[in-house]
Model the fold of this input.
Amino acid sequence: MITKINALKEEISALVATSAEEVEQLRIKYLSKKGLVTSLFNDFRTVPAEQKREMGQLLNELKNLATDKINALKDELGNQAEAASADIDLTRTETPLPLGSRHPISLVKNEMIDIFSRMGFTIAEGPEIEDDWHVFSSLNFAADHPARDMQDTFFIMRDPADVLLRTHTSSVQTRVMEKAQPPIRIICPGRVYRNEAISARAHCFFHQVEGLYIDKNVSFADLKQALLYFARQMFGPETKIRLRPSYFPFTEPSAEMDISCGLCGGKGCGFCKNTGWVEILGCGMVDPNVLEACGIDSKEYTGYAFGMGVERITNLKYSVKDLRMFSENDVRFLHLFDAAH
Ligand code: DAH
Done:
């Protein structure tokens, strides 16, 4: 048995391998259940009792030698593979990762921000979870105004004070005016919520961009000029605008603005219901009550405000027929806007 052990010792010490499979073959040959080393352990039963101690020790040494050798062979091959991978040319260009595209609402919102920043407007933001004061009371909404109804507004809490999801970004006007004195020239992009059944034409959340300019001697003509510039930048230099009298609690006088229909150029088509015009926003001169509620002297300062839906502008620009497309995240729809940025 000693001869066998010594022969195996020599044999194993001299082992070489060139691949992981070869190492595995060697492991099977020597160390598996029926392997050469393992079967010596079976012969161990027949060793006379007085030699058992010595033989046991020799056998264990042989087994350790075999295990160490196999592991060493494995490590060696691993190091070689690593050395080979160091030869990879890291400057080689790879296939680029496919990039996602910007969401159409973000594209249009950013374009609106660009246009108004060129006129000196800066961005202001406010919370989506609001209170009654900032969304309604400060903006001159009467106590029984229908917008304060559960049917229009999502209330989070009604007692002891109203906590609600803002229904428009006009709430940011109040937040800014409470803190700053004129001149104030801001736009407020953000998400708003309304308690509406979801359909192609209505959604329970959407996006608005609000504008506010307050200073000495700000007039309705300034408002009209700013909106004309916006409309032509957004929809093309041929675009015409018209202002129709309207009503909002927070502006006096108030107006709604239409642009000439981009599809028929104002001649009249199905899209503009043969009028040649499509509505895009609400606006007006800030009501003195609102200025006073926010701590601004209405005898010294005047201002204008406007508010528009980003989805509406996007629909007009890209003819998206169904509002639900904007929140379903169907990549086939989103990829249509890849080229737009
Ligand atoms: N807050 C209005 C809405 O959600 C939009 C609006 C109209 C904002 C007129 C204004 C404005 O600032 O002057 O329908």
